[in-house]
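Example 4.3 (complexes with small molecules)
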Amino acid sequence: MPSISLKTPSASYDVTLGTSLLKTLRQRITRATGSRTSRIFFVTSPALWKLWGEAVTESFESATVLFLPAGESHKRFASVEKLLEQLARNGADRDSILVAFGGGVVGDLTGFLAAIYMRGIRVVQVPTTLLAQVDSSVGGKTGVNLAAGKNLVGSFHHPVAVIADIDVLQTLPKNELRAGLQEAIKSGVIRDPKLFSFLEKNADKVLAGDTKALQTVVDRSLRVKADVVNQDELENGLRMILNFGHTIGHAIEAATKYTVLLHGEAIGWGMIAAIRLAEQRGAMSEKDAKRVVDLIHRYGPLPAFKAKAERLVELSAGDKKNRGGAKRFILPTGIGTVEIVTDVTEDELLAATSAMLQEMSAMTKTKKQVKR
Amino acid sequence: MPSISLKTPSASYDVTLGTSLLKTLRQRITRATGSRTSRIFFVTSPALWKLWGEAVTESFESATVLFLPAGESHKRFASVEKLLEQLARNGADRDSILVAFGGGVVGDLTGFLAAIYMRGIRVVQVPTTLLAQVDSSVGGKTGVNLAAGKNLVGSFHHPVAVIADIDVLQTLPKNELRAGLQEAIKSGVIRDPKLFSFLEKNADKVLAGDTKALQTVVDRSLRVKADVVNQDELENGLRMILNFGHTIGHAIEAATKYTVLLHGEAIGWGMIAAIRLAEQRGAMSEKDAKRVVDLIHRYGPLPAFKAKAERLVELSAGDKKNRGGAKRFILPTGIGTVEIVTDVTEDELLAATSAMLQEMSAMTKTKKQVKR
Ligand SMILES: NC(=O)c1ccc[n+]([C@@H]2O[C@H](COP(=O)([O-])OP(=O)(O)OC[C@H]3O[C@@H](n4cnc5c(N)ncnc54)[C@H](O)[C@@H]3O)[C@@H](O)[C@H]2O)c1
Ligand SMILES: NC(=O)c1ccc[n+]([C@@H]2O[C@H](COP(=O)([O-])OP(=O)(O)OC[C@H]3O[C@@H](n4cnc5c(N)ncnc54)[C@H](O)[C@@H]3O)[C@@H](O)[C@H]2O)c1
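Answer. The structure with nicotinamide-adenine-dinucleotide bound is encoded below.
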């Protein structure tokens, strides 16, 4: 079973990746947490638990399950309070362990619960979406949303183990799978040309949910994430490259009030904008740019949305990734390499965003013509 | 100005102690935080701000003030959410600084806000109660209450500076002052015989609020706390000694639903119970025990309360300080020395608690007789 090591100044743990891992979940958790385990609390969503609850608890004699309704709208403070009270009422103590079984929403919120309950208890991440497996379950970022903005509250709190079972992806809705694959493309562009080629050559298999192909994609994407986090846990430098596509991606999500696109889909469009900016600057060749944009669309379709370029640029300025004045931008310079730059002008951003929006509207028109 | 250094694996900062510090607060904060400061947000309580707001903001050109109503009942999750939303709406970013101006309630909650807003921003503690100056503002413990129990939620998040101005204690209600002095007695008993003697010899001055005497008490108590935290930030060992008197103290607070006694008063009774237990064991001489109990009463009166010994012992078992099975107890062995023991039996605890309760009822009777 391939396992990937995270080693940061504040934590050290393994990500185990494979198939049929749920069968032996109890043993895997015990191995990671040792004997100092009083009780295990699962946090998950009702529909997901219906699909997988039996398999998950096969290796357990008993289990306490706390439910968080599915969806981004439940990743908020009120849910945190409710679950904390449930933990306390059910006798969770400092030696209890939370197991997040779900996508990024369950993972982020459960990680945050673990970070603050009794000033920190242990959490095991069992990610069930592609996005959670390749990205959110690893690296210690936890958080919830405020009415005033997404992920405005949170902690750095690493899991003691991540157990990613490829099998659970079988029930993942196809659009969720495709959205997660945009993050895999991101990993390829910023740091792993082999992953990028693999995604090009094996698109059919990957999109059909072929287990072996998916495992390769998750494995390589995870290694990119782990490698980056190991070098810069707290996002003071290198870790920022994981935000490739996120400047405009986040703005798109905000402009569409998080209802039109999945996160990965917004990042897909955001990456296209970043690629156009890189092309305009001459930082990336036309040929490489075309390969990236083609791959993003190959893993689409990315849904169209309505937003003005000016508005997106405006919203991108409020992105919390931008400290004080200097706006950092992750500029792709080839397939597998990016640079962090601070001299991107508003005009450049506007031009790139407009180019991306034009592409979108051209595609929408083509589709309509085809339909007729 | 005496300044005490905190140096732990995760943080390093100074506690500045003195008089007339508020006048130059702005400069002091800037010195501690450097140029990377976009905006300052004060968190305080309305009545306290009425007394001191002008003095606090004298050195500021402008200030945003967020209010938390006074009292333990507001140290809870709903307040956290409300204040987080206010921070976001007022444009707080990663470079913003929170300044907690208040007692332990404001300090604990503001520290928690700072711990989780945007995964951690900086906080300056400006403690205004004796308890906050000698204890809660230093050491990085932050937290709020759940309906299910006190301080069940929180983080370790150190301030970047603590600025303790003795002047502000002038408006502190006398019972709050006395309650805080119980924590100073605690510091003396666990680690500083000179502080203990000082409290014995200067009781009149200290209780009258004499600035110089109070400054000595705060200074020495703080050094005890800093020294302990510097050696064991995360309470894996030594730091537990700060919980002397807290096993039964917390139980008293819970039994009386936090409405009859101030925290320090409950700790006063809790210390008496611990002293009786030490005496019964022969761990502490009768003479030393008498000195401690006399001093506790000298800084009283500790209000009487109603609770059965059995109930207190039962409640003490639920104290979150007790990991898994082994119950740790801080056993005084002399004036200035304690031991962490794990072999205290329920019977011993019951006997000691009963002795404490008998003492209380004897005192109440005496008082009644005097009144007649
Ligand atoms: N912490 C980080 O570093 C990080 C990184 C990226 C994204 N995120 C966060 O992740 C969240 C998005 O996560 P997500 O994309 O996983 O969405 P999600 O958690 O909302 O899951 C998507 C949907 O799929 C369902 N689902 C999950 N697994 C399933 C399965 N195996 N079979 C069937 N249905 C399944 C879920 O119940 C949900 O309805 C966002 O809140 C984002 O902010 C965090
Ligand atoms: N973090 C820690 O390490 C730690 C340690 C001990 C206690 N605590 C916490 O501290 C809290 C108790 O703190 P506290 O005793 O300071 O009580 P508090 O914060 O409730 O203050 C007591 C009262 O005095 C008022 N007040 C404060 N300063 C004043 C002043 N200078 N003049 C006039 N009025 C003033 C307050 O508004 C309040 O009404 C508890 O919640 C406890 O859990 C935390």
